[in-house]
Amino acid sequence: xxxxxxxxxxxxxxxxxxxxxxxxxxxxxxxxxxxxxxxxxxxxxxxxxxxxxxxxxxxxxxxxxxxxxxxxxxxxxxxxxxxxxxxxxxxxxxxxxxxxxxxxxxxxxxxxxxxxxxxxxxxxxxxxxxxxxxxxxxxxxxxxxxxxxxxxxxxxxxxxxxxxxxxxxxxxxxxxxxxxxxxxxxxxxxxxxxxxxxxxxxxxxxxxxxxxxxxxxxxxxxxxxxxxxxxxxxxxxxxxxxxxxxxxxxxxxxx
Length: 255
What we know:
By secondary structure, this protein is an alpha/beta fold. Helices cover 38% and strands 18% of the residues. The protein has eleven helices and nine strands. The strands form two sheets. It has a seven-stranded mixed β-sheet with strand order 1-3-2-4-5-8-9, sandwiched between helices. Helix 3 (87-98) links the parallel strand 4 and strand 5 (103-109). Helix 5 (138-146) crosses helix 6. It starts with a strand and ends with a helix. The model has no long low-confidence stretch (mean pLDDT 95).
């Protein structure tokens, strides 16, 4: 099964760039980056499995996610620059480590090849607790979700993946699979143990705790050529907090 793919940008002799979003997102979450990078090349935006309009599957391991990205690259020419944020960043790293021939340059946004101690299951709890019966307006959905999630920014992010046109309305996520696979999602496989020796750029939010000293050590172990930069004033969603700075840094690195 192939991921849902949106191809934008300009046809040129440059390699395309593939964009992989994070947990609870979709391909359009990286739309600002797609527009900037698409000024001189093709951009492949994917919905990761169990997200958006892509297929649902009980396996949400990083090996499976990397395999999906490999298929998408093969369908678009066989080699690409690859960018991933958070969960998508881990999938991109796994791809670069296991199939380096597919990746020319790697960009990772605010994540490391590291087993984190947090969980995102509370968001799954919140979405499953919302009564979707009779919903027609996004404002009404927001009001119902507000009973579970106080932060309006988080609600807006999650509600991007609520399909109100379906009968009955539904979340586009495969919530049972994501709940079941959450330990793997926040973790990092013991394999691979190798390294990706190609150019790699890691951008981290200054206000995020995803890329501190232990995580940077893990990055260096797997990506010896990694350039690591902090984006001032940005959190985990650095491409939303500082869109111009992130887009220009990525465009310059990819050339």
